[in-house]
Amino acid sequence: MLDAAVRVFGRRGYRAASMEEIAELAGVSKPLVYLYLHSKEDLFTACLRREAAALMAAVRAGAGGPGKGGVPVDEGLWAALMAFFTHTTGNPDGWALLHRQARTHGEPFAAEAATLRTELTDHVTSLITRASTGPLTPREATALSHALVGAAESLADWANSTPAATPEEAARTLLHLTRPALSSPRTRRR
């Protein structure tokens, strides 16, 4: 049921999606959908949580988790970016649900999307901190993480709407933009 719901919500949006269409695509009756997930809102929330968990699991697995021994930190950031873009391009309906649908249909859906974004930025902050070879303060690492996650979200949309765009292309573009901030010495202003 959740696979069918993600597909319908991702392609048609929350408001235009119908429980009848979801039930039909899932090959079950509409009353069965309501039996397991009591309302359209509950179904949408279940889809959001599942897709967010899958995306975070992919990113964490790709990066090897915090403190993975023996892997250069730049490779960890590359692996996390590749995992993110591989997942979002491989699951365009799930990405549309997380990135566009959840944010545009108000609470509590926007809160679910915000939770995912916070989890992503916290994880990316730890990767950036490990990858930095320059004098990057914790505040700068956090700011760079927010910029990187925002850029990754935009690039995921681009990759899903651009024919022949690859996860490698998106990850390489973003890492190319990020490397100078990780390695360049800066004069701090007080």
Description:
There is one protein chain. The chain has helices spanning 2-12, 19-26, 30-36, 40-63, 73-90, 92-104, 109-131, 138-161, 167-183. The N and C termini lie far apart (55 Å). The radius of gyration is 19 Å and the shape is elongated. The chain is 76% helix and 0% strand. The chain is built from 9 helices and no strands.
- Helical stretch count? 9
Radius of gyration: 19 Å
Main sheet makeup: none
Shape: elongated
Number of strands: 0
The secondary-structure class comes to mainly alpha
Mean pLDDT: 84
Residue stretches low in confidence (pLDDT < 50, at least 5 long) are 66-71
User: In which range does the helix fraction lie?
Assistant: over 70%
String of helices and strands = HHHHHHHHH
**N/C terminus separation:** 55 Å
Binned strand content: under 5%
Concise overview:
By secondary structure, the protein is mostly helical. Helix content is 76%, strand content 0%. The chain has 9 helices and no strands.
Per-chain topology:
Elements: H1 2-12, H2 19-26, H3 30-36, H4 40-63, H5 73-90, H6 92-104, H7 109-131, H8 138-161, H9 167-183
Jot down its keywords.
190 residues, mainly alpha, 9 helices, 0% strand
